[in-house]
């Protein structure tokens, strides 16, 4: 390392030894180092290394300007490389080229001794994106990107967005899943962009590619999905059960077992109990009602009023005991409700890789809190995912169900049935 620092191509030995004004090591001899460093601009690391190998180790061709000046270019160079070697303004206004007195196409490969003349026009529209594939030198490619970055920002955004969305579709991802408020900042930080437009512009002018960007986004989404699942599991372990588990016992609704009730008054739970002014209210876990669902209440012994959905199998008339008829009461939703209500969903889908991740991201996009999430693969090639989410009402819950139904391979999303 010491030897490289002292005697390598970027060593400052000339200044250390006070030889700046002598013949050893003139500025012109180190001009190529300056151009090499300029080539790092607007280029990602992989491409810079690959083009650096071409610039340092490839064979060269020597061609002449009409005035007899010699220009050194990489082997396989085209008139585009020659034009940008002279000056970026020459390349940007180039409309054609002559080699040895005859017109040649842009992809013509120059040979040793060729005399190259570049034809320019003030009305030229600038370089074409196809030139990036035709030129061989990193210098020309970098100057073309700089022109597109500066002159065609709006066009770059449109072109880059089309390429980006196409790559997202190929990766079976949606734009909505990465633009959610809680997801987008992480994505932009991963891509080192301030906004999505900056990303689109970079793809448009060639500073990066849609494939690389989407690959990085996929990695970040997987990381966020794992964090979401870990938080949900932790919440499920630490959150006390506020509803009754299924099971029959004396003094409880069919399908429920006695247990600790949530000690809140009806005004605090958003439930009005007809004929009772001040009583405990709990929501049955067998059907997990939310505001907007038709509900019915059952007076338990010592645990307040248990609230069920009207379509819950455990409260159907044929399952009610005649001696308990007086314990069934009418309940309704109050105007003042809790911020969120827990409800259970079960998703059935064809088993595949990243299914749980897609479900977690859909829930994140819907901006609902997940209290529990568990997945299970079945022998027949299908999978079931059970989850407990918190929503403010039935309308929000239906929106969550619609998002889950749009996931690839999902064929059924249902609420807890009470069975």
Fold topology:
Blueprint: H1 2-7, H2 13-16, H3 31-38, H4 45-57, E1 60-64, E2 70-74, H5 79-86, H6 88-92, E3 94-99, E4 102-104, E5 116-120, H7 131-134, H8 138-151, H9 153-170, H10 175-178, H11 184-191, H12 196-205, H13 210-238, H14 266-269, E6 271-273, E7 281-283, E8 295-299, E9 305-309, E10 328-329, E11 331-333, E12 341-350, H15 355-365, E13 369-377, E14 382-391, H16 394-405, E15 410-415
Parallel strand pairs: 7-9
Antiparallel strand pairs: 1-2, 3-4, 3-5, 6-11, 8-9, 8-10, 12-14, 12-15, 13-14
Helix pairs in contact: 5-8, 8-12, 9-12, 9-13, 11-13, 13-15
CATH fold field value of the largest domain: Ubiquitin-like (UB roll)
- Biggest beta sheet summary: 4 strands, mixed
Overall pLDDT score:
79
User: How many separate helices?
Assistant: 16
Distance between the termini: 72 Å
The CATH superfamily title of the largest domain: Beta-grasp domain
Total domains, how many?
4
**Proportion of beta-strand residues:** 15-25%
- CATH secondary-structure class of the largest domain: Alpha Beta
Shape: rod-shaped
Low-confidence stretches: 239-267
Structural class: alpha+beta
Counting DSSP E segments of at least 2 residues, the number of strands comes to: 15
Helix content: 25-40%
Rg over alpha carbons = 35 Å
**Biggest sheet: strands side by side, in what order?**
7-9-8-10
CATH architecture of the largest domain: Roll
How would you sum up this structure, described in words?
The protein has 419 residues and is an alpha+beta fold. The protein has four domains: 39-149, Ubiquitin-like (UB roll); 165-237, no CATH class; 241-338, no CATH class; 341-415, 2-Layer Sandwich (Alpha-Beta Plaits), CATH 3.30.70.260. Helices cover 38% and strands 19% of the residues. It is built from 16 helices and 15 strands. It has helices spanning 2-7, 13-16, 31-38, 45-57, 79-86, 88-92, 131-134, 138-151, 153-170, 175-178, 184-191, 196-205, 210-238, 266-269, 355-365, 394-405, and strands spanning 60-64, 70-74, 94-99, 102-104, 116-120, 271-273, 281-283, 295-299, 305-309, 328-329, 331-333, 341-350, 369-377, 382-391, 410-415. β8 (295-299) and β9 (305-309) form a beta hairpin. The longest helix has 29 residues, at 210-238.
């Amino acid at each position: 390392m010491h030897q490289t620092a002292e005697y390598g191509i970027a060593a400052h030995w000339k200044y250390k030894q006070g030889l700046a004004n002598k013949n050893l090591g003139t500025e012109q001899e180190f001009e190529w180092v300056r151009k090499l460093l300029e080539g790092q601009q607007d280029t990602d690391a992989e491409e810079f290394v690959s083009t650096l190998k071409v610039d340092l180790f490839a064979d060269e061709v020597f061609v002449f300007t009409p005035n007899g000046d010699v220009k050194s270019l990489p082997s396989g160079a085209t008139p585009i490389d020659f034009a940008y070697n002279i000056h970026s303004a020459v390349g940007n206004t180039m409309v054609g080229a002559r080699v040895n007195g005859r017109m040649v196409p842009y992809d013509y490969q120059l040979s040793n001794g060729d005399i190259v003349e570049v034809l320019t026009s003030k009305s030229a529209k600038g370089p074409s994106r196809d030139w990036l594939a035709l030129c061989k030198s990193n210098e020309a490619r970098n100057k073309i990107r700089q022109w597109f970055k500066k002159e065609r920002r709006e066009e770059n955004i449109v072109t880059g967005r089309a390429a980006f969305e196409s790559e997202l579709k190929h990766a079976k991802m949606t734009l909505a899943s990465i633009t959610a408020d809680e997801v987008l900042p992480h994505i932009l930080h991963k891509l080192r962009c301030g906004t999505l437009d900056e990303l689109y512009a970079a793809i448009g002018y060639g500073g990066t590619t849609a494939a690389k960007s989407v690959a990085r986004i996929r990695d970040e989404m997987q990381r966020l999905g794992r964090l979401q699942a870990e938080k949900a599991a932790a919440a499920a372990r630490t959150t006390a059960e506020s509803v009754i588990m299924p099971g029959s016992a004396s003094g409880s609704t069919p399908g429920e077992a006695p247990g600790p009730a949530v000690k809140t008054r009806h005004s605090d739970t958003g439930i009005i109990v007809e004929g009772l002014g001040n009583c405990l209210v709990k929501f049955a876990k067998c059907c997990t009602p939310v505001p907007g669902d038709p509900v019915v209440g059952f007076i338990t012994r010592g645990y307040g009023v248990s609230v069920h959905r009207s379509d819950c199998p455990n409260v159907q008339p044929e399952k009610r005991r005649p001696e308990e008829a007086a314990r069934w009461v009418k309940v309704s939703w109050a105007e003042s409700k809790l911020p969120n209500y827990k409800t259970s969903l079960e998703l059935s889908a064809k088993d595949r890789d990243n299914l749980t991740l897609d479900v977690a991201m859909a829930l994140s996009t819907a901006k609902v809190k997940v209290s529990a999430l568990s997945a299970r693969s079945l022998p027949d090639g299908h999978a079931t995912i059970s989850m407990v989410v918190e929503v403010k009402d039935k309308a929000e819950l239906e929106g969550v169900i619609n998002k889950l139904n749009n996931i690839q391979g999902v064929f059924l999303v249902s609420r807890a049935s009470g069975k």
